[in-house]
Amino acid sequence: FSWKRRDGVCHMECNNMLDDFDDGDCCDPHAADVGRTCFDPDSPQRVYMSVKELKEALQLNSTHFLNVYFASSVREELAGAATWPWDKEALSHLGGVVLNPAYYGMHGHTNTMIHEVGHVLGLYHVFKGVSERESCDDPCRETTPSMETGDLCADTAPTPKSKLCRDPDPTNDTCGQMHFTGTPFNNYMSYTDDDCTNTFTPNQVARMHCYLDLVYQRWSQSKKPAPIPIPPMVTGQTQDSLSIYWLPPISGVIHERELDTLCDDCAEDGTFRQYVHEASSPRVCDSSGYWTPEEAEGPPDVDQPCEPSLQAWSPELHLYHMNMTVPCPQPDGCILELRFLHPVYPDSLTLWTTYLSTDSPKALSDIEILTEQGESIHLGPLDTFCDVPFTVKLNIHKKVSGVKIYTFDERMEIDTALLTSMPHSSLCSSCKLIQYRVLREPPFADGSPATAAQAHREFVDTEVMPGQVYRYQVQAVSGTTLGEASPPLVHVHGAPYCGDGKVTASLEEECDDGDLLDGDGCSRKCKKEKGFNCIGEPSLCYVHDGDGVCEPFEKTSSVLDCGPYTPNGYVDLWAAKAYASHQDEKSCPASLATGEPVAKACKSYLHAVPKDLSQAAWFPCSRSQDNAQDPNEERMPLGGEKVWLKVCFERPAVPTSILVFLASDGTAPSDQHKPRVTVQLSNVEGLNRSLGTHELSCQHNPLIIDATRGQQDPSYRAGSVLLNFSSPLVGIAAVALRTPALPGSADPTTCLLPHREGHGHQRYSCAHGACAGLGSCTKPPIAHTASMNCTSDGPRHMECSITCEKGFVLRSSSGKSLGSTQDVVLTCSSGHWDRSVTCDPVDCGVPDQSHVYYAKFSCPKGTTYLKRCSFSCVHPAKLQGMNQWLTCLEDGLWSLPEAYCKLECDAPPAVPNAKLLVPRCLQGNHDVGSVCRYKCKPGYHVAENATSKPKKKFLKIQCLESGQWEEGHCVPVVCEPPPPVFEGMYNCTQGFELDSQCVLNCEPPGVRVPIVCTKEGSWTEEFTLCESLQGTCPPPPELNLVEYKCEQGHGIGAVCTPSCIIPPSDPVILPENVTAETMDHRLQPTRVQHIVCTGRLRWYPDPSGIHCIQSCEPFQADGWCDTINNRAYCQYDGGDCCSSTLSSRKVIPFAADCDQDECTCRDPAAEEN
Fold it and tell me: Where is the Sushi domain positioned along the sequence (predicted)?
């Protein structure tokens, strides 16, 4: 919304700290109704504080109580807001519920608190899976009631957002679902009015109990421990004993509940675990206000590791270019300091680095451990990964109070850190472990149904008889209070059990690794986990797919390990020639789809095609300019037009199926529909056969299309296949025709003819004819081979296996890279080699910013193996170091640079009417981010848009990434205009500027002392009404459906409040000759809070110009285009009606008939316009 800043109008979507409260416009009494819009903590006009400030001021902890705050919200329509149980604020003073007192207890809103407490206890809206999803591909989209989608409750049917006390009317929900029946409209978590809502479902109740046990255990005053969630497990048995083991209570609380102790953070062995208490960094925070050090405090809360998040600290600093961040400074890099509340003797430190922008090893350049005495211990560079927390053992015999993290990855994100103490920490010495008792049927020998209470979670029963059935349950005991008994374990003594290390078929075990852990390949229920294979007894489990070893059971399933699989009795013919609608000989030749697949893996959501993949498979691209020579060929951008690929086979054959190997399935994040392909076969005579339309998905790769269904002519021999794709983002690695391995399946006398240049569509035909003469085979001449092993069983047949030298890769004549490690087998029959290959040098590509920031590169001799490129620094960056050369290495990567380019600013320019406060600014060589400070001379202040802020005397300017200094000025002081009651009663010499003299026009015109504007920005005296003034204003006329409430009467200075007769409408000032009906959507009228009777006995502003226009709906920036808000007065629905201002890029109209242009993108400042 940068175009909306500094324009003298308050835009609510910019009214936040990140945008400096619309650069002051929202606290300017001339630009806005500050009683509704001013939130800036530095402004004297401020009326509202943020919810966070309110809670910070009150400091009411949420560990033992649910706090409910009552506070009027600037979003008048907001009835309440709640904290989720998984937010790290849930148990701090920032948790709780905020309710709007204007609604609380009013008709229709009596259940608001119930609804908000539902959120606090983990309940989503019942319409989450329909009206709160991001797209039709959103994994949370709900089409049938489910525990996995929507609101995660299987007893609330999918429903759109609705206020009706019945099922909604049939309506298209943009993903094709029209009818919603059995909807939970009477559920407290719907938006239906209160006289309709009266229910939580059993699933919702269970979910709330779960969070009470997991998060809010301290709210319960009861000492009763939480239940043990699953049955005890057998861990060993002998002839006369049975060992069982159980998990702790579901809440994780393993100590007796004493209020306000540290025991909740103590483990059974007395280790004390604590997350970061306070985080700080010398690095300037990004101007967006995201990624601050505070994000690294408290427990981890990043949802999706390895993807950028706003819930973590990052050194990311964009100053002015979103795509270029400021590098971490030499020599230390970017630093994050983390402090822990309780210094402890450490056992280990765990660090959550949830995002890394580079694959370079040792992303952490150093970790410095800080001891309580102020000493430092450096651990040096360390490897870390984004998908698993990184734990390092600390062999330090001193109390540790904090750590410093150092990195040069300016996009790294750190979620938090955990410091674990040595066992038996003094902080845990007063904690009492809860106890357990084991219940058994039949009872024990002494007649007791239960054992005495014990602290550890295992029990050996020595009173057992082989063949006897035993039923065990476990109860937690806290003091004298008993918890509920666990679900039962029923075991026949002597029988096999899961965890005994033997795979027992009668128990339907698939594996048994002798332990009861999930995640190690064999689950605690003795089932193989996805992606694992297990062998032996006890089972050893390993990840099999993609490990490079082709095992017998993978032959039919793993393309990654075993390559394409052809069943016995069939032959796969690979495409020998290919044409495409979108191909370019240099960047994306269709010939990359010929031969066997080189790209084994398939990817979804490919934003950009990596270079190695673009040489291994065909991805549609538009023709580059230098190739567009043919006048018959129209060059079109890759937009909505059809994408097709046609492949030809060496010999026509009877097809049983067509195989399409995918490198990308063409899915796009914004698209609602699965990509599809339509398949058509052709024979030598040009007779076509359709094989229908099929969905593309990486889950089913290769796509195997049955070619026998509906086949009328069993002797039909296909010579080519045409594939029409619905998505331009597909990538095709190979196409094969599967034919029976029988004589006569393929035609031995017909061959694909060499390509003849045709015209128009003829050029894309696969011409077959009689095979050429039969010759003998000789070794192919190929340069730069490391080995060539040929075998022959006659002059007309030869096979050669080829590998290339170091620094060279195999490439087929089609330009397809065949990789550097594997060898390739070529086959010759009758003097005809099945393909031609070369060993080409590895190409590193032209280096870019990722190699050296702020540099440009020159590669006069090319970018292949052992070639060198030099770099020079782009002004104003300066070279640091001597060696400006990079060399292309054998792995296709450039050597590491031995110099870098550093951005600096020269001395800043002089600022008129200001005094420099930092003398060293007059020298040059200032780092990016350096600041110089000035003080404005008397009678001047810092130039800012916000008129209502206190005028600043001190100016600071920063060295920007462009190598230039930020602009800053000192401007003359301006005084506040006199109050509206004086409208039309004064004359001023220079307006309201410094030294301007204003005189009030009074009757009789006596001697008036001028009122002067001083250098402090204030008048020498207050404006006061003339003593002779008398009279009243006429009652304000009720025009344009506006009525006035005049509680102070109609005397001079009296104020009347306008309101609209027909709600919901707002009174606003419209220009002359414009009415509410004729008003253009681009108009942004000022809302009128009150009118005042001036000394000239006229109302100001003039009631004849005040009209009523429809109020804005409270659904701005919610992802749905609300047509009523699609106008400037409502900030064009917060950007919801233009794809360029939506993160999803997809406009979804909200249940409205768009008979004119209300659903179109109207915002004049949006990219589309």
Answer: 903-972, 973-1028
